[in-house]
Write a structure and sequence with these properties.
By secondary structure, this protein is an alpha/beta fold. The protein is built from 6 helices and 5 strands; from the N terminus they run E-H-E-H-E-H-E-H-H-E-H. The chain has a single domain, classed as Rossmann fold (3-Layer(aba) Sandwich), CATH 3.40.50. It has a 5-stranded parallel β-sheet, sandwiched between helices. Helix 1 crosses helix 6, helix 2 packs across helix 3 and helix 4 runs antiparallel to helix 5. The relative contact order is 0.23.
Length: 182
């Protein structure tokens, strides 16, 4: 799939901040706070890239989702007015393979950028409370806890426990981490 972008001269290294974590942990809320608090930031939510009805992870939809994510990330990383791109994603099920495909394609682009991956976690009770506040029904909340709550324990990336933190404080920690990683 072709997508358009303008590759520009950059004065500083672009940052791709990847926020991962279980369903309902606060990835979207935190990303929105980063965009509100900082200038020259763009946000890509992987959920937006797979909105279709009916939805199923088929070979065709996986290709489409990966292309959607790739084009949005590439375009923002290529924009001279954007220094940081925040990308929220989950890695359980089919999603990690899609992420890896996108990153492989991006690394072959003539765009220099640094990736910072951050895992968001919270207590199980807090995760359930947030899922319900997000409007998830009991079945979806239970499935999310069973399938994703402990999944991210297997990765060795910086982790922020958001249980007793405001989204603004979490956003600040993520940006500080990304800035120290440049």
């Amino acid at each position: 799939m072709a997508c358009s972008a303008t590759v520009c001269e950059e004065d500083e290294m672009k940052q791709l901040i990847v926020i991962i974590g279980s369903n309902g942990v606060g990835k979207t809320t935190t990303a929105e706070k980063i965009v509100e608090q900082y200038e020259n930031v763009a946000y890509v939510d992987s959920d937006w890239c797979r909105v279709m009805n009916p939805f199923a992870f088929t070979e065709a939809t996986k290709v489409t989702i990966a292309d959607n994510i790739y084009c949005l990330l590439r375009n923002y990383l290529s924009c001279s007015d954007v220094n940081k791109v925040v990308f929220t994603h989950t890695w359980h099920g089919e999603r990690k393979a899609i992420y890896e495909k996108v990153m492989e394609k991006l690394k072959n682009e003539p765009i220099e950028f640094k990736i910072t991956i951050v895992i968001l976690k919270c207590s199980k009770d807090e995760n359930i409370k947030r899922a319900i506040q997000d409007g998830r029904d009991e079945i979806r909340t239970k499935r999310g806890i069973e399938k994703t709550f402990s999944f991210y324990d297997n990765f060795d990336y910086p982790c922020i426990d958001t249980t007793n933190m405001t989204p603004t404080a979490v956003a600040q920690q993520i940006v500080d981490l990304a800035d120290s990683n440049v």
